[in-house]
Design a protein that fits this description.
- The two termini are 22 Å apart.
- Strand 1 (23-27), helix 2 (31-42) and strand 2 form a beta-alpha-beta unit.
- Residues 1-19, 291-297, 342-349 and 417-422 have low confidence and may be disordered.
- The protein is α/β, with parallel strands linked by helices.
- It is globular.
- It has 18 helices and 20 strands.
- The longest helix is centred in the N-terminal third of the chain and has 24 residues, at 140-163.
Length: 579
């Protein structure tokens, strides 16, 4: 697939470089930054993408070793139509061929120290799952169907109104949504919502583990996030042959074909350059720069480009930041000439004069200990996507209402200095992509990515190797319990991505892999706006701005951001796509 993309890029007609036209700098070459760059280039802007690392894609990353290929960050492909529409907006009209993964997940409950974990398959055979649900709680399969029906209603209205921000379509979607909401309130906690359907803590855990993806526990996540079940079990979970890095390759190739995107790696942006507001025209003088009219009226500074770590300046009419919002906005807008700002150490307290916030009080998602294991033997029982749920010691319930699965979330979000190593009560996710794509692992071997949610770091906190070693031992112990043989002798290659690497390599504040969490005060339109309110010509795209995290939402953020920037720059419409 990669070779095909490169061939198409070579033979496709390339647009002539722009001689004149607004210039845009995009800071960060993740999927959001690439998608914004390509959209703006097709509308006539001259775009420069500056990526600090040596590869594009951001958290859509991969690692290869010993014939094994691993998804380091994003591994779930949801809503493939969003991926395809983003490619088409960049002029790539080739089909987006993603395969549905079956089952969507295997969920393992590790409740007993002696028995093998109990396995549920979601998004597979409905008959088998129904029987399993009813074996746990009488009538659970019927209530499960009702739960999914409610989730689909949340998705039907929630996506267009609060993700795509099509508020003008409210009359079309709201009446049915409100009828559902009156019966099952979407802003109560997901845990409370599930208690309306199921008495069993096990079934509630089975249907709430994906709250992790929005950076919340089931007791904190709004019930509206049950729409994730409607996506994953209704629309489905998909896979792109060769891994998600192939999607990044197509975005890069589409940007290159415009002829108006300058893509630069190893270009670390250090600061946003600002111009003071120009004085208003004297009485009787004509304002020959209407583009800057509102800057003059509001007396806000305006971007004039960025400077790199090596001192190079890249001038631009507009700057779009795809780097992590909480890290980038305060730091890139710091004032080195302001004594008060200089006294704040290099970190989140800088830039308070122009940043909308220092984001110290924002709520962050979890970080992660991510383990990559290449094996010379295949682990049995695993599906492509797997979730391991553990029951905490009932004596450590901490007021969780007798629900041991809720108590097991504590370690992921707040840490637990008295953590019971013997019980190993934490939840984790395992991706074994070779179940769908045999090229992900060497013949006769395996390649697994293990994501263990862990508390977000304090701003000055360092990685704890002892904690990582304890987590690794616990993960291997639970996988050995599943497969029946020791894994350690069969590991041929291994890598750990600890919380502080998420912070340093990917620039994520506190190492929070999903950015800001999605509590009610940071949900959809309550997340930071894409456009700066303090600096003209500055916008943000990515997981911590609107509408939220996850590749489909970031691609949607890119579409909305590109439209806002294009309107500000009065760009032309994009040319029609080829038939």
């Amino acid at each position: 697939m990669k070779a095909l993309v490169l061939v198409l890029a070579a033979v496709a007609p390339r647009a002539s470089p722009l001689v004149e036209g607004p210039s845009v700098v995009v800071v960060g070459g993740g999927v959001g930054g690439l998608a914004v760059a390509g959209r703006l280039a097709r509308r006539g802007a001259s775009v420069t993408v500056l990526e600090k690392n040596d590869v594009f894609g951001g958290r859509v990353a991969e690692w290869r070793a010993g014939g094994a290929r691993f998804e380091v960050g994003a591994s779930l492909l949801l809503l493939p139509d969003v991926y395809e529409s983003s490619l088409r907006a960049l002029g790539d009209v080739e089909p987006f061929e993603a395969r549905r993964v079956t089952p969507s997940y295997s969920v393992f409950f590790d409740d007993d120290d002696d028995d093998a974990p109990q396995k549920f398959e979601l998004g597979g055979s409905g008959t088998t799952l129904d029987a399993q649900l009813d074996s746990v709680e009488v009538g659970a399969s019927e209530r499960y169907a009702e739960y999914l029906s409610t989730a689909k209603e949340y998705l039907r209205a929630g996506w267009p109104l609060f993700v795509e921000e099509r508020l003008g379509d409210a009359p079309k979607f709201l009446p049915r949504f409100l009828r559902t909401a009156l019966r099952k309130w979407p802003l109560e906690s997901h845990d409370a919502h599930l208690r309306r359907f199921f008495r069993s803590p096990k079934l509630r855990a089975l249907l709430s583990f994906n709250d992790l993806y929005v950076g919340l526990t089931p007791t904190d996540a709004p019930a509206v996030f049950s729409l994730l079940a409607a996506i994953e079990l209704g629309v489905g979970v998909f896979y792109l042959d060769g891994g998600l890095q192939r999607y990044v390759d197509r975005l890069v190739a589409a940007c290159e074909r415009t002829g108006s995107v300058d893509l630069r790696l190893n270009a670390n942006v250090d600061k946003i350059l600002l111009a003071s507001p120009a004085p208003s025209p004297a009485a009787g003088e004509e304002d020959d720069e209407p583009f800057f009219f509102f800057s003059r009226v509001l007396k806000k500074p305006r971007v004039r480009g960025v400077s790199l770590e090596d001192g190079t300046e890249v001038l631009a009419d507009y700057v779009v930041v795809n780097a992590d919002l909480a890290t980038a906005e305060p730091w890139l807008l710091r004032d080195d000439d302001d004594p008060d700002d200089r006294r704040r150490s290099k970190g989140p307290r800088r830039g308070l004069a122009l940043a909308r916030s220092d984001y110290r009080d924002a709520r962050y998602s979890t970080s992660s200990h991510t383990f990559l294991f290449a094996l010379d033997r295949t682990l049995p029982h695993l599906s492509h996507h797997n979730v391991f749920l553990a029951a905490a010691d009932p004596g450590r319930d901490r007021g969780r209402g007798g629900d041991p699965y809720r108590a097991a979330w504590d370690w992921a979000f707040v840490g637990d200095k008295e953590y019971d190593e013997k019980k190993k009560a934490f939840h984790f996710y395992v991706c074994a992509a070779s179940r769908t794509d045999p090229t992900a692992a060497p013949e006769g071997g395996d390649a697994i990515m293990v994501l263990v949610p862990s508390p977000p770091l304090a701003d000055d906190e360092k990685h704890d190797p002892a904690r990582a070693a304890a987590v690794r031992a616990a993960v291997l112990d639970r996988l050995e319990k599943l497969c029946g043989w020791p894994l350690e002798p069969h590991i041929t290659h291994e890598r750990l991505v600890p919380p502080d690497e998420w912070r340093t390599r990917f620039g994520l504040r506190r190492g929070a892999v999903f950015g800001f969490s999605h509590g009610l005060d940071q949900l959809a339109l309550f997340r930071p706006a894409r456009k700066s309110s303090n600096v003209d010509g500055l916008a943000f795209v990515g997981a911590s701005t609107r509408p939220g995290n996850g590749v489909p939402l970031v691609l949607t953020s890119a579409a909305l951001c590109a439209k806002e920037v294009a309107d500000d720059l009065a760009l032309n419409a994009a040319p029609p796509l080829p038939e």
